[in-house]
Amino acid sequence: MTTNTKLGQDMIDAIEGFDVFTEKFSGYAKQSATLSVDVFDKAVDNVLELQGELAKSTNVAWFTDVAESNQKLVKTLTDTVTGTARTYLK
Fold first, then answer.
1. Structure letter (DSSP) for residue 46
2. Which of 2, 22, 36, 88 is the least buried, fewest Cβ under 10 Å from its Cβ?
3. Secondary structure class of 90 (helix, strand, coil)
C-alpha cells in the first residue's frame, strides 16, 4: 500500500515540477519574443532613416517624395504589426 502511495506522490511531484518548468519556459519565451519585436522595430526605423537620408542626398525631388511616402507606409505597417504583437505578448 505504501509503495502505491509513494509512486502516486512521485507522480504528483513530477507533474508539479513540470508545471514550474512550463511557467518559466513560457515567461522566457515571452521575454525573448518581446525583445525580438523591439529589435525588429528598431531595425526598421534604422533602415527607414538611412533610406530617407540617401533619398535626400540625391537632390531629386520626386525620388525624395517617393522615399518619404514609402517610409510613412512601411512605418505605419510596422507599427501595426509590432503593436499587435506587443498586445498579444502582454
1. H
2. 2
3. coil
Name the residue among 76, 78, 51, 79 with its Cα closest to residue 65.
Answer: 51
Which tens digit of pLDDT belongs to each residue from 21-59? 889 999 999 999 999 999 999 999 999 999 999 999 999
Q: What is the pLDDT of residue 1?
A: 47
Under 8 Å CB-to-CB from 34, ≥6 apart: which residues?
A: 86, 89
- Domains identified in the chain, total number: 1
Residues sharing a CB contact under 8 Å with residue 74, sequence separation 6 or more, in sequence order:
44, 48
| Residue 68 burial by Cβ neighbours in a 10 Å radius (0-12, 13-18, 19+) | middle
Domain that holds residue 38: 2-89
pLDDT of residue 74: 96
Half-sphere exposure of 57 (CA within 13 A, CB side): 6
